[in-house]
Write a structure and sequence with these properties.
Elements (H helix, E strand, L loop, with lengths): L5 E4 L8 H8 L4 E5 L5 E3 L5 E4 L2 E4 L3 E3 L6 H11 L1 H5 L3 E4 L10 H10 L3 H6 L24 E2 L2 E2 L17 H23 L3 E4 L2 H13 L6 H11 L1 E2 L5 H9 L3 H30 L5 H26 L21 E5 L4 H12 L8 H6 L11 E5 L1 H4 L1
Parallel strand pairs: 1-2, 1-10, 2-7, 10-13
Antiparallel strand pairs: 3-6, 4-5, 8-9, 11-12, 12-13
Helix pairs in contact: 1-9, 4-6, 4-12, 10-11
Length: about 400
Amino acid sequence: MTIRLDALLLPSDAPPRHSNIKRNVLFFDSVSLIDPSDKSLINGRKITEQFNQFHIWEADRATFPRTENYEDGYREIIAHTRQLQTRGIVRILNSRQSPNVDLGINWTLYNSAISNDELVRAAVPDIGNDKPSISIPSCVLSGREIHGGNQRSKYALDCNSPFQIPHFDEAWSDLAHLRIGRAIKFLRLAYGKNISPLASDHINHHIVTALTQHSIPCATPSQSDESLANLSISLDVMDPQSLENVLNDMSWDEVIRLRREILPRISNLRIFLMNRVNAIYQGKRDLEIYRQEMLKTRLEFESMKESLAEEWGKLRIGATFKFGGISGASATGLTLLPSFNTWQEVTTLIVSSGLIAASSLTDEIKSLIPAHRKVRTHPLYFLDSICLHA
């Protein structure tokens, strides 16, 4: 039995490190990157609406914050991975090539999400007393829905005002809003293509964690943090930092050869993990039962990793392996963080939390939120927190 496990690397302010991509192609069947030309929540002239006798095209909205020379750095990665792209190991995606994903819903989700104080605060873990070091693009940040005569855009919902973080320069709130928009856009794209989202930077790490916390029925934030730690599963068979150090000096050809040896051996590990997590989710709407089942799965998975590490010890990178040790969401390295709710439930929660009147969430909007007719039973978030410590 073959179960594919493909990941979409959520874009951040800066391009990912080569060594990080190399490490992830050793675990996933493919790693998708976002075309650097896809640079706004809504790219200009990609959404049109009919109002009586005329069309209106949207301009750029919520343009993503990026470090200087971002596109040059990303295009270097794309150039260096040409061979992997021809094999389908690395993929370059553009949301404009996904007709099954209604891009206008991104604006609906975004305007609701940026009114949520927890999400906004989570999007700026780097907040400080000075202005952000990264520049805020000049763009439409929120609201300003299209109206045509007496008609209103179908994407327009009555939302609460965008949350502004008190006691800090307003640029931090603007930055948080744009980062949330970027995460929402590419989370929807991932689920529209049935690919698992992978957060490999501290910004997306915090946003995804905040989204997951919203899906867990807990009384307090501290209880939610504990639940996340209990639900998470550390996936690294070997020490991730040591492995990245080794991979950093490897050519892409050498990584491909290493992948040929590692990927077949990890297949049974992934089949066990995916089957168990899917089975646990079915009908387990009691959080405590779900938590206990996940803890049992984690213990069994750790035992399987030890056996696999012994097999891998024969490889020339065997010295980097780690053995045993149960670690939670705060661990360094690749972590699986299953959500207690479906993707549609999570996104509906995002929208509803920002609405002035819940009744304004129409059946049409609800039907467009999932971005795919059939998605995985529940979202599997992958957090690659090695970047937090590197």
